[in-house]
């Protein structure tokens, strides 16, 4: 008989029916802020990868978890040594920004920025558009290190393939910043930790 393959989901020890549908605020506050602050996660569900070294269609196999959406922490390098533009070349093509950046807030404070990108095969500006989409979440500029080839030590990326003729996968509805369930206090403490680390808070 052949060698038995191990199921990566079984290795995570997730409860039956587990789903991972974080809001934009949760991705920034509960995951990216904690990652940048060097805090550990009790359940490692978002992998670390330099996703700009790969084509998007190979990324699902490199993810720790996901069926239609895949999440990664990734470094983001500068396009030019002294510039502020990110290098978007990846694998056999490049990621091109689309739409306007969305500011994500938590408890009335700006937590970070969400940018939508589309993958094109080939060289800019004559690449061929694909259905691969990335939402890149990053902290505000105050968290960046000057004089480094790295633009950001970590960004958090959500990757998915848009079905042609269909809408983007349904994600959970964002909750109001001042919910009455008390969950916002933990969000605030994670933001405060990062803002204190950055010297902003």
TrEMBL record:
What positions does the domain NAC occupy?
Answer: 14-162
Keywords tagged on the record: DNA-binding, Nucleus, Transcription, Transcription regulation
The answer to whether the entry has keyword Ligase is no
Q: What InterPro entries does the annotation carry?
A: NAC-dom, NAC_dom_sf
- Offer one example of a GO biological process linked to this entry: regulation of DNA-templated transcription
One cellular component term (GO) for this entry is: nucleus
Ranges of biased composition (kind: Polar residues): 165-174
One GO MF term attached to the UniProt entry? DNA binding
Instruction: Give the compositionally biased regions (Low complexity).
Output: 180-189
- State the residue spans of region: Disordered: 165-201
Q: Which one Pfam family would you cite for this protein?
A: NAM
Protein's name in the database: NAC domain-containing protein
User: Source organism lineage?
Assistant: Eukaryota, Viridiplantae, Streptophyta, Embryophyta, Tracheophyta
């Amino acid at each position: 008989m052949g060698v038995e393959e191990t199921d990566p989901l079984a290795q995570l020890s997730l409860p039956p029916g587990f789903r991972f549908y974080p809001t934009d605020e949760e991705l920034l506050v509960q995951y990216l802020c904690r990652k940048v602050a060097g805090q550990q996660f009790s359940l490692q569900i978002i992998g670390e990868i330099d996703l700009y070294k790969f084509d998007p269609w190979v990324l699902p196999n490199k993810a720790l978890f996901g069926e239609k959406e895949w999440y990664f922490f990734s470094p983001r390098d500068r396009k030019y040594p002294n510039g502020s533009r990110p290098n978007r070349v990846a694998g056999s093509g490049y990621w091109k920004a689309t739409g306007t950046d969305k500011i994500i807030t938590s408890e009335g404070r700006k937590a970070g920025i969400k940018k939508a990108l589309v993958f094109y095969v080939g060289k800019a500006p004559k690449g061929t558009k694909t259905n691969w989409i990335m939402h890149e979440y990053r902290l505000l500029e105050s968290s960046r290190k000057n004089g480094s080839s790295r633009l950001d030590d970590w960004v958090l990326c959500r990757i998915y393939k848009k079905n042609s003729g269909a809408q983007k996968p349904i994600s959970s509805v964002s909750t109001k910043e001042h919910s009455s369930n008390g969950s916002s206090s933990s969000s605030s403490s994670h933001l405060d930790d990062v803002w204190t680390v950055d010297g902003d808070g």
